[in-house]
Design a protein that fits this description.
It is a single chain. The protein is mostly helical. The protein contains nine helices and no strands. It has a domain at 60-192: Tetracycline Repressor, domain 2 (Orthogonal Bundle).
């Protein structure tokens, strides 16, 4: 019988996610993961199967957390649906203006690997769909309360906001400043009219 684990799996996945977000998949070595997680190489292999498997677990975990966070932000009933979307866009403009260290594994994995890795592509596409579903629900709420024209296609608009926010992240990683990202966020709200 093997020894019992002396680590919290979710903590290891979160630490690995931070390492992969910083260095990308290709730029993160096994030694980087050992340093980030505090586990030895053999323990990482035993628990997760290797670098790729740990990466996929980190990607799935981070994406689920991002969808849950967006859902919480866009279902906060202390504001109208349109106010919730506006607040979320402005929050992301601030967050993403921090540069490369402020990005997400979700977007970085999409840019780095989705074109050549079908498993990553499938995972990130599911993430995009899940994020769009949250935006769509909020837009439908905005239509129901008269903030957004009922003839606007909520699904198309939801996909638009996912594209805008991921684009803001990529621009922020390239060094675009907060004022510019804020302008992008506020201008994107014109699509709601």
């Amino acid at each position: 019988m093997g020894r019992p684990r002396k680590f919290v799996e979710s903590d290891v996945i979160a630490s690995a996610s931070a390492a992969f977000t910083s260095g990308g998949y290709g730029g993160t070595t096994l030694d980087d993961l050992v340093a980030a997680t505090g586990l030895g190489k053999q323990s990482l292999y035993n628990a997760f199967g290797g670098k790729r498997e740990l990466f996929l677990r980190a990607l799935t975990s981070e994406t689920s957390e991002a969808v849950a966070a967006l859902d919480r932000a866009l279902t906060d009933e202390s504001a109208t649906p349109l106010e919730r979307i506006r607040a979320q866009l402005l929050k992301l403009a601030v967050e993403f203006s921090g540069g490369a260290e402020s990005g997400t594994l979700f977007t970085k994995a999409t840019v780095e690997l989705a074109e050549r890795d079908s498993e990553v592509a499938k995972s990130t596409l599911q993430g995009f769909d899940d994020l769009a579903a949250v935006y769509r629900h909020c837009i439908v709420d905005a239509q129901a309360c008269g903030e957004v024209d009922e003839t606007v296609d909520a699904a198309v608009l939801a996909n638009y906001f996912v594209a805008i926010t991921r684009g803001m992240e990529v621009l922020g990683n390239a060094g675009v400043d907060r004022a510019t990202l804020t302008s992008v966020a506020l201008t994107s709200l014109n699509a709601m009219k």
